[in-house]
Design a protein that fits this description.
With 509 residues, the protein is an alpha/beta fold. It folds into four domains: 116 residues, 3-Layer(aba) Sandwich (Cobalt-precorrin-4 Transmethylase, domain 1); 127 residues, Tetrapyrrole methylase, C-terminal domain (Methyltransferase, Cobalt-precorrin-4 Transmethylase, Domain 2), CATH 3.30.950.10; 116 residues, Rossmann fold, CATH 3.40.50; 129 residues, Rossmann fold, CATH 3.40.50.10090. It is 35% helix and 21% strand. It has 20 helices and 22 strands. The strands form five sheets. A five-stranded parallel β-sheet has the order 3-2-6-1-7, with helices on both faces. Helix 13 links the parallel strand 16 and strand 17. Helix 4 packs across helix 5, helix 13 packs parallel to helix 14 and helix 15 packs parallel to helix 16. The protein is elongated and about 95 Å long. The two termini are 51 Å apart.
Length: 509
């Protein structure tokens, strides 16, 4: 993979998996990141495109059942043309490139032109989508094999590549891909070829994604049920006794946040852990970092504080970003944790405490409520008049805490340890998803995330539910005339998740 592809041009034929971006292979992610040209299909998750490099050329060649953005022959020519320019091309296809993905045709076109290529297999929807619907394609006593066929071929045509009699008599499982447009014809052909009308059927729409829907029935009634439910493509068709297992084995749809698409607006460095927790509860997340953490414009005040750490009675850390930025600068200046030996350490919130403990520090005090107004009350009697206090914080942090400490008689050094600047979330993509009604909730973890979100979108996100990590963030949301759907009682990520669960639980009841 890491040869001289940039000299001659190189094409990676990559399977993106069935829809859930977390099911993409590690090598697939690497190929996306290395691509100078990324050629992608309709069923590729937008979240996978976020792995593309900043300068990559993205070319959409998606197909619909009734029309093609670009004919297959032109896609083949495009891959050849870009590779001959000496560029690294990643051809990103839904599912697996060699399972009804026409990847074989693309590989043949490249081989004929002497262009190097690699195939990166993807998880095929033929197996993964039924699994997400609680349907194993094989099961002891019910199906010892399965057949995967295209549902795109017209069952009524005289010349066919499919053995319809064998499909009708198959004692195992049949999986039809791309067959929703032909569902009535497929069921009619199977019945004419002798399939029992009572044979269980399942239709799974957008399997492995937040929009997953499953409809079950029999050969005799599934087409009528699909019409009544207005069941749409993309969907797969599963036939056989394994469909009956869904009642017991449907697992993903039992998760409390199943079907919810939630935007995580934290800085990219912190978003993944939050997103991972939401996804474990069944949500599909969209990481849209509205802030980035940057060094201060002027390190002078922080450097002067670091030079006299032994004079401070208290050092109060108000966030994990403050901790990381403080110690990064301390290390750059040649210091280490031994320089903090004379100070009592206060941490605002369990995550800040955990981040300090990871550095071998013992935290002396953690307030029970994680906002400045409550902290002031709890620090009464602990911070004495004349105590020197260091507050390494964000450049935009509120002034409530340092002003209150000063009123107690403390000598406060409130220094910028880091700046929060506008993030690099994909604005066009988020706007597109909001307009299409594909986002259910946006989460905010600080007032700055609210302000930057509105600024980046150039509009107020008033068409979705909004969740706030605490009252200060909630107040900022309301300042924009927006409603707060969920507000954490404990001002932590876990508290925010509990509030989100409570909100969607009430919506479902």
């Amino acid at each position: 993979m890491y040869g001289k592809e940039s000299e001659k041009g190189m094409v990676y034929l990559v399977g993106a998996g069935p829809g859930d971006p977390d099911l993409a292979a590690v090598k697939a992610i690497k190929c996306i990141a290395r691509a100078e040209v990324l050629v992608y299909d309709r069923l590729v998750s937008p979240r996978l495109l976020q792995h593309a490099s900043e300068g990559a050329e993205l070319i959409y060649v998606g197909k619909l059942p009734d029309r093609h953005t670009l004919p297959q022959e032109d896609i083949n020519k495009l891959l050849v043309e870009k590779a001959k320019q000496g560029r690294i091309v990643t051809r990103l296809k839904g599912g697996d490139p060699f399972v009804f993905g026409r990847g074989g045709e693309e590989a043949a076109a490249l081989a004929e032109e002497g262009i190097s290529f690699e195939v990166v297999p993807g998880i095929t929807s033929a197996v993964s989508v039924p699994a997400y619907a609680g349907i194993p394609v094989t099961h002891r006593g019910l199906a010892s094999g399965f057949t995967v066929v295209t549902g795109h071929e017209d069952p009524a045509k005289e010349e066919t590549d499919l053995d319809w009699r064998a499909l009708a008599e198959n004692p195992g499982t049949n999986v039809f891909l791309m067959g929703m447009g032909n569902l009535s014809l497929i069921t009619e052909r199977l019945e004419n070829e002798g399939m029992d009308p009572a044979t269980p059927f399942a239709l799974v729409h957008r399997g492995t994604e937040a929009g997953q829907k499953t409809l079950t029935g029999t050969l005799a009634d599934i087409a009528a049920k699909a019409k009544e439910a207005d069941f749409k493509h993309p969907a797969i068709i599963v036939t056989g006794q394994v469909v009956t297992l869904r009642e017991k084995l449907a697992w993903v749809e039992q998760k409390p946040l199943f079907g919810r698409r939630i935007v995580v607006s934290r800085a990219r460095e912190q978003a993944s852990a939050f997103a991972g927790k939401l996804e474990s509860l069944g949500a599909e997340t969209f990481e849209f970092p509205v802030i980035k953490i940057a060094p201060p414009d002027d390190n002078g005040p922080l450097d002067r504080a670091l030079a006299r750490l032994d004079s401070y009675r208290w050092i109060i850390f108000t966030s994990e970003n403050g901790v990381k930025s403080f110690f990064n600068r301390l290390r750059e200046k040649g210091g280490d944790i031994r320089d903090l030996k004379g100070a009592a350490i206060c941490a605002i919130g369990p995550k800040t405490k955990e981040t300090l403990e990871e550095r071998g520090l013992r935290v002396d005090y953690v307030p029970s409520e994680y906002r400045a107004e409550a902290m002031v009350e709890q620090l009464q009697g602990k911070v004495k008049a004349g105590d020197e206090v260091l507050l390494p914080r964000a450049d935009i942090a509120r002034s409530v805490l340092p002003e209150a400490l000063a009123e107690m008689g403390a000598k406060v050094d409130n220094v910028d340890a880091y700046r929060t600047v506008r993030g690099d979330g994909n604005v066009p993509l988020l706007k597109e998803q909001l307009a299409a009604g594909e986002i259910d909730m946006i989460t905010f973890t600080s007032s700055s995330t609210v302000r930057n979100m509105v600024d980046m979108l150039d509009e107020k996100p008033d068409q979705v539910a909004l969740a706030a990590i605490g009252p200060i963030t909630a107040e900022t949301i309301r300042e924009y005339g927006l409603e707060v759907a969920a507000e954490a009682e404990e001002y932590t990520i876990d508290g925010l998740i509990e509030a989100i669960l409570d909100y969607w639980g009430r919506q479902s009841s």
